[in-house]
Design brief:
Number of strands: 11
CATH class of the largest domain: Alpha Beta
Strand content: 25-35%
CATH topology of the largest domain: Alpha-D-Glucose-1,6-Bisphosphate, Chain A, domain 4
CATH superfamily of the largest domain: START domain
Radius of gyration: 18 Å
Number of domains: 2
Low-confidence stretches: none
Largest sheet: 6 strands, antiparallel
Structural class: alpha+beta
Length: 245
Amino acid sequence: MTEPADQPMEDHVLVEVTVPAPADAVWAALRDPAKIKDWFGWDAETLKDEIDFIFVTHAQADESRRTVVFEGVSDRYEVEARGDASVVRVVRSAPAGDWSDVFDGMIEGWISFTWQLAFALARHGLKPRRTIFFSGPPRADRLGRSLLGLDAAPAAGEPWAGPLGPDESAGQVWFTARHQIGVTVDAWGEGLLIVVDQPPTEKKPRGFTMLTLTTYGLSDAALADLEARWQAWWDERFETVAPGC
């Protein structure tokens, strides 16, 4: 959508994360499709095409400034060197205003994926991952964070332990945001669970939840068992509907 020419624009930082990796390594993770698949989105038949569309054919990269601008939207990735670490942020150029109460699916996606990028680099050196994804509205008026017992989770960086869906596990609170939370899960090969909850709206009167389970080093049998347990847990509490529907 084109903004009126006379409407003042300003930069809004949608998400900013410090990553314990050199800027060159982070930049490569943003530009090489073979690396992007190990942090962006989740496993799906369409993932390769999505990466090509967003990061290759519809992106303009400035290597000297380490910025990636996405065509058709006013969003960009920035990578800033901080010694041996890096700051990664997504910035949107948009009209001035208060966005604190806004749920925007694209913004929530940038938040999730940028924290997945940070996790993949910080904890696993961008090794291959395998993911399990669920999305849909709850069958009752409780969203994912509440049903998982994460609405009272400690602050980011603090350890946690206890029931998690159908399992008992432990880990660390990786990040918190207004509409989502990410926790590391030791039992998944030091994996990551991200929960995104969209509040109720007229179109979605019970709200909408998305879960991304990221795993590392699990055998095929262990991954299949994990998916079966979580699928049964999910089906009791949620309908399955694709994001955006």
